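WARN retry 2 of 3 for item q-0093 after timeout on previous attempt; input resubmitted unchanged.
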Amino acid sequence: MLHTRIIVAKNAEEAGKLAADVFEAEIQKKPACVIGLATGSTPLPLYRELIAREKAGKIDFSRVRSANLDEYKGLEPTHEQSYRKFMQDNLLDHISIKPENTIVPLGKAEDPDKMCEDYEKKIEEWGGVDLQLLGIGHDGHIGFNEPEDYFPAMTHEVQLTDMTIDANKRFFDSIDDVPRAAFTMGIGTIMAAKKIVMIVTGADKKEILKKTFWGKVDPQVPASILQFHNDVTLICDEEAYPF
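OK item q-0093 returned
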């Protein structure tokens, strides 16, 4: 908790706007900054706000680079449930960012280990992530870094837990269609970001949020490592705030 700035928003929409303020400031300060992006329902209000702000002339994404946290193993980029398609549909197709300046792990990589290594190299070549966006899973996962006995360092393949598979089944025709593995930035990759913004909304996240920032640092709660980062902004709504 030493370095965490906490902002409590009225609701998810306000949380998105407050997060957009952080992104707008970063892009204005450094027009060619590298932003780390996340998927899921939590960042959608933020993405809608960023699109609106560029249309209004407040932000210019033309020099920005983006790197996504994760991708399901085995899905083509065009698959309806791939995270690449999610990003295109909900943000990237609606802003001026150049396609070659956006990277998402490749779900159908022929050589997964090399793909993960190359992903790390690309981020390094760009100078590292300036501002990383995070959500949190009910078990404390960030990206697809599930509860473990250690904190994985680099981009890697991970087997998804039953809790994560169950949480994601709503996006697929049936639970059998949910991929059992994914590629994700490692905890070390995430912690190397210069700034981190985490958005947490909904009463169902209250308990894990309390464990993350007010509990002990434990790889069984992967997000708890954020207590050691020196520039984290937590934006949660009133329902998620534990106190």
